[in-house]
Specification:
Blueprint: H1 6-18, H2 24-27, E1 45-47, E2 60-62
Antiparallel strand pairs: 1-2
Protein name: Transposase
InterPro entries: RNaseH_sf
Length: 70
């Protein structure tokens, strides 16, 4: 997974500012790509974290080794 560049960080912050007044019903319609389970294979765990973060249960998700189009 590539690291976030300063441009990525700026775009994320801009997006967050543009959506800060959304209500719960709007947020429920968002499919977060870093939280969505699209395919499940037992036995593999992929750790997603930023530099300096400890491995925490909230930073893990199941990951398939197969390549599938969505």
């Amino acid at each position: 997974v590539p690291m976030l560049t300063p441009v990525h960080l700026q775009k994320r912050q801009q997006w967050a500012c543009e959506h800060q007044n959304w209500i719960t019903e709007q947020w429920k319609k968002v499919a977060w790509s870093d939280e969505s389970l699209l395919h499940h294979v037992d036995g593999w765990v992929h750790v997603c974290r930023l530099p300096g973060e400890h491995v925490a249960p909230g930073c893990t998700m199941v990951r398939s080794q197969e390549t599938e189009a969505v």
